[in-house]
Structure prediction request, 434 residues.
Amino acid sequence: MSASNPANKLPGLRNLHYSWVMFGVVFIILLGASGFRSAPGVLMVPLQEAFGWDRGTISFAVSINLVLYGFMGPFAAALMERYPMRLVVSIALITISTGALLTLVMTKPLHLYLTWGVMVGLGSGSMATVLAATVVGRWFVAKRGLAMGALTAASATGQLIFLPIIAWQASVHGWQAVSITIATMALAVVPLAFIFLKDRPVDLGLTRLGAPEGDAVPPRSDNPVKVAWGTLALASRRSEFWILAITFFVCGATTNGLIGTHLIPAGHDHGMSEVSAANLLAIIGIFDVVGTIASGWLTDRYDPRKLLFGYYFLRGLSLMALTSVLGSVNFGLIAFIVFYGLDWVATVPPTVQLCQQIFGPGKGSVVYGWVFSAHQVGAALIAWLAGVSRTITGDYVTAFTTAGAMAIIAAGMILLIRIPKPATNVIASVAAGD
Prediction:
């Protein structure tokens, strides 16, 4: 079936391929998921005041969340190969809602670890950028980088929308209002996901957007756990996988782990209110939308390795400068917001592209799931260590400076990646015994 055939369009809408409906639904899901993910940073100070827990204790719950958020990725990708996508996503949303509501009755750190840490971590991890990578791989050939960039930007857009609201709720109505809001948001998205999410274009008699006649992404019936671990075993034999994993570890450490979790309490240390500091993250989110969509557009046209080099290098420089400008609105702080915003998740489209180019379209999404796991290990480790460092030293100078150096080192590592010829891929070569 030709990609230009009217049957490839959504009934009743002449020029709209169903891939764009999938794009819209997943954008809304990821939009909400960003609200779930941004809540712990906003709640750190309110929980400290309400329960008397130190930031190291609260940061440990965030670390559990981030680890599970990442390690659920490859298994979620494999589950979506075996079971209906709408079922996997709906269960994840219900899990998030339940975890958020259970925080209302918590009385000790263990309860925080089990709810925000385990339940919300597992649920949100099933809808992370792995969901975007899976949908883009199954539904797009043309505009793939642009679609991935825009879906990645959904996280920034959600942060832009929800962070100030969540911060205001926490300051005016208490942290409990935030939990209720998150639970309500998660449940509200379930009907949308269950009705509109479709597994593959062939289910509707379509081909992927821009694909030639006869194109199809065949479903897999393998055991999801076996697929996830088997793909890791094959991919881990190659240095390219480890470079992608290590650099994405740094990506997670310098975004979700450090800035996403600690910028608000760091601003509070410098005399800013939680709402004002949350507004900083929201403004970063504005530039992140622009930067990530632009990164997707650039990924369709330029070497993703060169893009990643620039992203990590600029990120490192901006982090090293942060401690000298935080505390009041000035030119340096504005420059940080712009540079860091444009760079926040701009790394995702070229990283996904490299996974597809190196490991092939059949395994690329699962490989990316494992690479994303490294992202969240970095996020979790720095979220905890930065909290411990703050408790010991009384400031975040060491954490920000160390993270900046890590980003610059990651920039250099990216240039060591080799991309195979289009006719081959690493997984296929390893499987054949090459």
In short: The chain has one domain: 6-431. The longest helix spans residues 18-51. DSSP finds 16 helices and no strands in the chain.
